[in-house]
Design a protein that fits this description.
five-stranded mixed barrel, alpha+beta, RNA-binding, eight-stranded mixed sheet
RNA sequence: GCCCGGGUGGUGUAGUGGCCCAUCAUACGACCCUGUCACGGUCGUGACGCGGGUUCAAAUCCCGCCUCGGGCGCCA
């Protein structure tokens, strides 16, 4: 089918072969219209019963919705057709028949619930809106990559099967690796740190992370895409600068190259890239502002982690992306460095969208003895992490970085209600297939 | 892990003890219709998650199971 013409490219006067899915068949009696849909859009095929080959007309009229068809014919200008052109067919072939009872309606006349859609993702992705999300996702990844490359970062790929957990804390998926106990990696954290001590110095990775938490919320996945950055000779403020740049670049890329997709999602009017200059609140300011909103039953005190409800209240109050910096050292992971002039304060930071946390980062502890002490304090055996800690004996520069939840970025960018909308085949507590 | 809510034709829904051999839309089948664009019209097919219980009577109330969604915790 190498001379196939896409629906959007059919020019009046041309003789074409179009191929795609039967979107709809409108039979008006003497005349009928077959709407064929492909990845570029839809095109109308005219069927005049008295004037065309009867077998061909019957073939077209018998085609079920969503069957794959090929139509040969002449493209004619026709103001009454939806796209201004229509195909006057000379031949119609049903290439692959679809059942009449579909598990969901790709034309979108009747909605389907998310589980039904995910069970039938292929059909779901025939819908313009679903397709648009993944075109935008691809553009976000491209925009992010370009921004990292412009920042002289090298893209890396680190192992997803690992011998030990990364930071402790979150649950890991255990697997068997040739008879040995192993795990699915929860984060590229340790590996990207090993890279800043190498000659590569500044790295980023876009890859899967696995978390075995049994949570069941619209913003968690058990397999997610992490966008990670790490650079030698950076402190936490420089890491935040890069974070702003990268997130803004993702929005800019979408605004620039995804007009059609934003239109399909009904976002063309309101879509706006952030300023690229996110407010930086200290943890102390954050809890004060949350307390001032009176959203919480109990006032937060220094040392508390931010509850979800508090995050929402603060997000509403700030109204744009923002950072929370200078967290109490106790509630940030041990591999994050504390301020030199105040050991109770961490250089760790979170970057928040008004709806939820997007990024977590900080300057890393690069001093070997401090790192070992941190492992011990965390109840982890430093011996098990020797592959990692020993490199801190061979010249590990100061460094900083962060991890960004890819699906969360897309979810908040597009105002999706459920993070599963941003993954083709999501993995959650209940879902292992497709 | 704790807590809450839901499962009705293929899909999305109405129905909170008798008015229900179950509503509506869409899809599907038949027929009518030569410019539809969610085409229209007439007729028709098709469902109460599973098991037990209460009751004269259960989609509706109770119990168990299965299954799905959500809130919190934790995180990205």
């Amino acid at each position: 089918m190498d001379e196939r013409t896409y629906a959007a490219d059919a020019e009046p006067g041309a003789t074409v072969t179009v191929a795609g899915w039967v979107h709809e068949l409108r039979d008006l009696g003497g005349i009928a219209f077959l709407i064929v849909r492909d990845t570029t859009g839809r095109i109308q095929v005219k069927l005049e019963k008295d004037e065309m080959d009867a077998d061909m007309v019957d073939t077209a009229l018998d085609a079920n919705r969503e069957s794959v068809v090929r139509v040969d014919g002449a493209v004619e200008e026709e103001p009454r057709a939806p796209t201004g052109v229509e195909v006057v067919p000379t031949d119609v072939e049903v290439i692959a028949e679809a059942d009449t009872q579909l598990p969901l309606d790709p034309s979108g006349k009747v909605g389907a619930e998310l589980p039904t859609r995910l069970d039938n993702r292929t059909l779901d992705l025939r819908r313009e809106e679903a397709q648009a999300i993944f075109e935008i996702r691809a553009e976000v990844l491209r925009g992010v990559r370009d921004a990292f490359r412009a920042h002289k970062a090298t893209e890396i790929n680190t192992p997803k099967i690992v011998a030990t957990g990364t930071e402790g804390g979150t649950e890991l998926f255990p697997i068997t690796y040739f008879g040995e106990e192993a795990f699915m990696n929860q984060s590229p954290q340790l590996f990207k740190q090993l890279m800043v001590g190498s000659g590569v110095e500044r790295v980023f990775e876009i890859g899967p992370i696995f978390r075995a938490e049994e949570h069941n919320t619209p913003r968690h996945l058990n397999e997610a895409t992490s966008i990670d950055f790490e650079s030698a000779f950076y402190d936490h403020t420089e890491a935040m600068d890069v974070c702003e740049t990268v997130v803004t670049a993702a929005y800019d890329a979408v605004a620039e190259n995804c007009e059609r997709e934003l239109e399909a999602l009904g976002l063309a009017e309101e879509f706006e890239a952030p300023s690229g200059d996110f407010p930086r609140l200290t943890y102390e300011e954050a809890i004060e502002r949350i307390n001032a909103t009176d959203a919480l039953d109990e006032q937060l005190v220094w040392g508390d982690d931010l509850p979800t409800e508090g995050e929402h209240a603060l997000g509403q109050d700030v109204g744009e992306h923002y950072f929370i910096t200078d967290w109490p050292a106790d509630i940030k992971p041990f591999y994050i460095k504390n301020h030199d002039d105040d050991e109770t304060l961490s250089t760790g930071f979170d970057m928040m969208h008004p709806r939820m946390e997007l990024v977590s980062g900080g300057q890393r502890e690069h001093r070997h003895d401090r790192l070992i002490a941190g492992f011990e304090q965390q109840g982890l055996d430093p011996e098990q992490f020797e592959y990692y800690t020993k490199m801190f004996n061979y010249g590990m520069p100061p460094h900083a970085g962060w991890g960004l939840g890819g699906e969360r970025l897309i979810m908040t960018m597009l105002g999706l209600d459920n993070i599963r909308e941003a993954v083709l085949f999501p993995r959650d507590r209940q879902r292992l297939s497709p």
